[in-house]
């Protein structure tokens, strides 16, 4: 008590207070606290000073979190086992599955680094939120089926005790693909692949299509493919928050910061032909705090690149792609951000509750949003006319020229509509073959990639998270074999393209 | 830990009750397997071409006469207040001539369950999903495939936020279907107006009294 009294530096009247404290203690001992309160001795400032003294005393005792060295509490830990760069739905899904599959409690220390806590530019929350099984590659179909299974039992997986149950607001409306004459055969082949893989899809002729959806104009449509189960759209923000809440309840550490560099060791080995190959191993991840120069080097064993649209930049920081042009070391990660626009339109006479997620062969897509006659529409621009990715501005001219004509042609009710709002988001576009890259890099030994999904990341996120967790903790894929999505196809320059009809 | 134990035990019990009756299917055929599943969950059913219903009594006992009708498919199924869920519906999927299905008050029936009902799209005429707490608007959308539906009961679904609008949209989606939707409070706007009128009346009285004073 006397130490606290003596060490008060912020006091103005230090000497006088010392004497008055002594008086108060003596008075308390003789007369009791109640008499002092009645006598009006305890003024407000004195009370608060005493409280502060008591707090300082308890802090000085062992067991409190006070330390004389001031530390920023937002810094990531100095050492972690696995650092996941990217706090989108894929990153948090990997974090959740890592904690789910660890053999002992606290077996892996996982840190998820995300630079934007508001998620204002993240692809996850800006996505249209659809899930479908109508792909041509069986791996993609299985990924979607597994993810739909996960979302069906989401409260069993991601339910946290004493918190609200997860509500994804899943609309089971199905996807409707329309094919013209020249691509109808692709649709038929895809249908048999999808059926074989277990997706519930049905083919419709133009007359059946008109009967089921009288508001569609079947002009130019030769065949339609309609999903019956496990297809529709949901709220991506709820899924992201569910993953994040559950992962944090299991002990994953969230860090708000930006990865600005890596420290790695290089092992130079020579091949049989005498070439030199550099094998890198990442030792530290440098995480910089937002709006500050302060950084924390996190020593880690494994780094997971789930940075979405910015994975290419992250891979450059790791030194991938700077070798001689015709070697494996010279191939960069072929993921770059591509801007896509989504327009919200209001059409009071539009199709009703049974509107599926309509995708036309001209490339446009439209789905219902809410119950008030609002719809979400967009399309993929041509390769040559890709918009600028430095900002998130929306080009409304694009809607007038490229979306509305085809939309009105397909659904005549949409000739009279009004664009109420629009936004732009980035695809983590895989320039090589527009399919995800999942696996280890051959030259950087402890980095796992889960990126490049080109618009399908959200719908595959639960299954991809499980696959990457299996790779890291079990050494190989256990439930779904996604070795076709590894780096081998990029190194060998063998693209694995989706045979879409758009 | 106790909470997670009780919930996982409950899930395990549900999974066991809704397991795939593959054994019965192999030995007695799909109709008897579906019938046995329904009776084991304390539901009731009626074979096509017959008039009597097979049900269980209070204690879960039922007569084994249903085994004799291996070849007659089920026409009406009453699974109200049972534990049927998404996986359990797999036992009923072979019944392509099912005309009426009642799922009143089933707690495990949710949107995903409704999305699986498309297998009955040609034959199902009557569906009762009232009082199911797991169904939301997104699940009602899944009923779009049941074009043969004539009577639908969606009363007292607690998780629909705007029941009036949803029911109107449902009626548009299923034009030949008669939809029953009771147990919703549609009169909210009217009550607000009445309240406002009362308050205006009171304020008028106050001002008049003030005037007299």
TrEMBL record, chain A:
The FAD dependent oxidoreductase domain covers 81-471
Major subcellular location class:
mitochondrion
Question: Per UniProt, what is the membrane topology?
Answer: Single-pass membrane protein
Q: Name one GO cellular component term.
A: mitochondrial inner membrane
* Superkingdom of source: Eukaryota
Q: Which cofactor does it need?
A: FAD
Per UniProt, subcellular location reads as: Mitochondrion inner membrane
The role this protein plays is: Required for the assembly of the mitochondrial membrane respiratory chain NADH dehydrogenase (Complex I). Involved in mid-late stages of complex I assembly.
Q: What is this protein called?
A: FAD-dependent oxidoreductase domain-containing protein 1
Species name: Myripristis murdjan (pinecone soldierfish)
Automatic annotation (TrEMBL), chain B:
Instruction: Fetch the InterPro entries from UniProt.
Output: Leu-rich_rpt, LRR_dom_sf
The domain of life is Eukaryota
Stretches the record annotates as Disordered: 190-213
**Entry keyword set:** Membrane, Transmembrane, Transmembrane helix
- Spans through the membrane: 20-39
- Provide the function of this protein: Required for the assembly of the mitochondrial NADH:ubiquinone oxidoreductase complex (complex I). Involved in the assembly of the distal region of complex I.
UniProt family annotation: Belongs to the ATP synthase subunit s family.
> What is the annotated quaternary arrangement, including any partners?
Interacts with incompletely assembled mitochondrial NADH:ubiquinone oxidoreductase complex (complex I).
This chain belongs to the protein called: Distal membrane-arm assembly complex protein 2
Please tell me the species this chain comes from.
Answer: Myripristis murdjan
The taxonomic lineage of its organism, from the top, reads:
Eukaryota, Metazoa, Chordata, Craniata, Vertebrata
Q: Which gene encodes it?
A: dmac2
